[in-house]
Structures are given as C-alpha cells and as structure tokens.
Amino acid sequence: MKKVNGILASLLFLFSHVTYARIKVGVLDVQRIILSVEEGKQARQKLEKKVTEKEVEFKKQHEVLKKMEEELQNPDTLFTDELKKMGKELSNPASLLSEEARMKKNKEFEQKKYEARVKKAKEFDQKRYESMRAEDQFKQQIKSEEMQATQKIAITASKISNEILKKEDFDLIFEAGSSGLISARDPIDITEKVIQVYKPQDLEAPRAASAPGKK
Length: 215
What we know:
Shape: rod-shaped
Helix content: over 70%
Strand order of the largest sheet: 2-1-3
Number of helices: 6
C-alpha cells in the first residue's frame, strides 16, 4: 500500500508541474521476457531435466512402497525362516509335541507373527515418511532455483528498461499486471525492445562460458 501511495504521489506531482505536456508511460511484461530470452529458456530446460530425472527415482520409490503395503496385507509374506519352521511343526499331525507344549508353541508363534508385522509396518511408515519428505524438499528446491533464475532475468530487464526510460524520455515505466498501474492513456509497451537489447547479452554468456582459458 505504501508503494502504491508513493506512485500516486509521484503522479500527482508530475500532473501538478506539467499542465499541458502528456506524460509518457511505458509498460513492461517481465513474464514474457522470462519466457522469450535464451537465459530463461535454458533455466527452464535445466529445471525440467532435473524434474524428469527425479520423477523416475520417485516412481521407483512408490513401487517399493506399494510392494511393502501389499506384503502387509498378506501375512505369509511376513514369515521369516524361523516362523515358517514353527508353522510347519504346528501343522504337522505327526508332531510329538504334547498338548501343553503345542499350546505354548502356538502362543509363541502368534507373538512372533505379531512382532514381524509390527516391524514391517514400522519399516513401511518410515520409508513412506522419507519418500514424502524427499519429494517435498525437491519441490522446494525446484521452486527456489526457479525463483533465483527469474529474479536474475527480472533484475537485468529492469536495468535495460531504466536505460530505455532515460534514452527515450519516458516519465514512468510500469510492470504489466502490477498493482501500481490501474489504467493509463496510450501506454507504450517496451517489452520487445527490452528483449532485443537482452538478446546480445544472451549470446555473449555462452561464448564466455565456452571460451578456452588462458594458458
């Protein structure tokens, strides 16, 4: 709100001192610049590649989690070698176990089955938590990298627009879609001019990066 009030105050000042001259207002579409310049395209391609590679990794994790969940639904998959051996002994009619020993063995068997399921459930919960956390962290990382890339382009675009303002005698230049500009009579879109000035800088960056170092 303070920023908007400051802009309005500047406009009132200009109108009060320039009665007959029309104010020259420019508009700048920063989003269009980000999408158009080579620096923005390369940043998007780099981020898209990261996302695609990570999606493959996340898909594998989801498959592992799905398998673990299915195992939890099927008690037989939870049996260790020890449990399998105990189960065979209990199900064997020829077993020499007394009734009391059988009951004790069965109780031990059920307890171990329960412990195996609890252990597997804990492993599943931990694996799912780690997977969700990794995905959230990756999303935040991509968001942060995208913001850094767009801010860098926006700063350069702002510097170029300031040069245009001085050279072409603009009184004001607003960012298209910003809350500071509600309406203006015949605003001049300088977006394409900024892109054209930006392009040589785009071409210079790859050249500098690929240039051989001094020996």
